[in-house]
Every structure is written in structure tokens, then in C-alpha cells.
Amino acid sequence: NRILAYHGLNQLQNTERHGIRAMLNNASFKKDQLTITDVVFLLAPRINAAGRIFSGKKAVDLLLSQNPEEAATTAAAIEEFNTTRKTLDKGITEEALQKIDEDAFYQSALSAVVYGENWHKGVVGIVAARIVETHYKPSIVLVSDGEKMAGSARSIAGIDLFECLSECEDLLEQFGGHTMAAGLSLKAANFESFRNRFDEVIRKKLNNIQPTPFMHYDAELDFTDIRPKLMRILKQFEPFGPENMHPVFLAFNVENNRFTRVVGDQKNHLKLHVHQQQLPSLALDGIGFNLGHWNSDLQQQQTVDLLFSLEENTWKN
To answer: Within the chain, which residues score under 70 in pLDDT?
Structure first.
């Protein structure tokens, strides 16, 4: 996979495919070098959004396009699909989390199974992943159309979703997937029974204990260690991906230097400008996606321990 990714990135870097160029233009891609991160966060969501919101054929048409004008038009349509996907994702996530907060069942449950009648089926997998991020419980999000429900499930470390759904098979119409993600359908009349059974299965697998989310890190690193030589060494490990993940480092006693602030449409991302307490003269910039809630602590000069990965940021050469 790493070899394929390496050569694939080189081809993408110099691609003459009009569709890929059009997507990168719409994503305001300005860097000299395309990375796996760019593929994952810029290209993949746009290709994915076509199938979620309209039809996967639209993405195929874009990738196969031989005409730059046609590619630009199709890419613009896909950009709208991606914007719609983000709006639906945000709205349905808020509704799903509210249902969980308001239902007494979830106060003690070790799983989350929710449904909505007007939710868009194309984004329920993303919403399930958001619920996992918030509550760290195996989560299922379903769309109801009267007599039937269908949707997607996402898991946490150590819980095999397919195995758990297999133990509820008699209450389901169909299901399929793997350890961390699955799809399923059931009769609406079976919802309560399924929700209870699924939670019993999860409870048994977890020995009745709510797990705590955790993150691995590879090494402790002071800001003084972050030098061009280290970046050159890290680049030799690229491209990163499953089984060869981007190294994560830990720095202690980090605090706001001067310009840390919240950014983004929803003011939910944290634009970092920080130093270590023992190194006030050495400040670094960073971005913490969905970490805007830490801003008040940093503004009050609270120190935090920071998990981070390293990237070179190029701007105006």
C-alpha cells in the first residue's frame, strides 16, 4: 500500500486529468507538493459527497472528463454537493445529539441507537462517527420511512460491530460491514427491541464498563527539537497511512504566546500560537480542529500538555 500510495501521489502531483485539477482549484489548493493529507481532506470528501448527496456517477464523470470546461462545470456541481453534505452533517448531528441528551435510556446505555424521519440517508454514517467522537460509544444512526428503518453504524476500539450485529440478527432485515463500520435495516416495530438487545451485547463485550477514549503518542518532544533536520527525517517515512501513521508527539507545559484564537465558520477550531513555559522565546503556530473550547483556558495562560503532529507550512514561498 505504501508503495502504491507513493507512486499514486507522484502521478496525482503531475496529473493532467481535468477533473482532479478542477477539484483542487475549488479546494483552493496552492501548495507545491500534494500529500496524503490533501487527498484525504480535499479530494476524497468531494468525490465521496457526490455519491452521498446525488449519484456516484457524477464523480466518475468528473474523473474521466476529457474536457476542461466540462470538468469545471461538473466539479462546481460536486462542490455544491460537498457544501450540502456539510450542512446536513451538522444539522443532523445536532438533532441526534439532542435526542441522546433528552432520552433517559442513554444515561446508562453503553451504546447509542437513534433515528430520524427526515434525515438524509447519505450522511448517517458521518453522523454516527460524530456521535462516537462525542460520547465514545458504538453508535447507530437510522433513517425511518414509516415501516422500515435503515442506516449506518460506527464502532470504538475493541468492539467488533459485525459480530455484535450478528447477535441481533433475528431483529434485523439486513446487515453487513466489518469491525469498525456497518450498514443495517430493520422493521420500525423492532426498534425498541433492537436498541435494547444491541446495548446488552455491547455491555457484555465491555464488561459493563464505559471505556475512556485514548490517544497514542510516539515520543516526547520539546519545541527546541523541532528543526529542519527532524522534518527531513520525518519525510523519509512518508507517505503515511494505516499501519504507518503520522508520528504524534507530546509536549509538556504549553501555553498561549500571544495570538491563539478560535477560527472557522462555527468558531470551533483553535488557531494556536503557543510556546512551552520554559521556552517563552520559541513560539509555534498550529491548528486544532474542533478544539475551540480550549481557547478560554489558553487565554487565561493555563498550561496544557499538547499532542501534535508536524507539518511544514509554506506561504508566499
So the answer is: none
pLDDT in tens, 273-285: 999 998 889 999 9
For the full predicted model, state whether its pTM sits above 0.85.
Answer: no
Residue 152 belongs to what H/E stretch?
Answer: strand 148-154
Alpha-helical (H) ranges within 136-183 are 161-166
DSSP H or E stretch at residue 141 = strand 139-144
In 103-209, which residue ranges form alpha helices assigned H by DSSP? Answer: 105-108, 124-135, 161-166, 191-205
Identify the bridge partners of residue 114 per DSSP, sorted by sequence position.
141
Residue 83 CB neighbours (<10 A)? 12
Strand partners, 182: 153, 177
Q: What's the rounded Cα separation, in Å, for the pair 136 and 128?
A: 11
Nearest to residue 291, comparing CAs of 265, 309, 268? 268
The continuous run of DSSP H or E covering 4 comes out as: helix 2-13
* In contact, 84 and 29? CB cutoff 8 Å: no
27 in helix, strand or coil?
coil
Which of 46, 53, 54, 55 has the alpha carbon at shortest distance from 75? 46
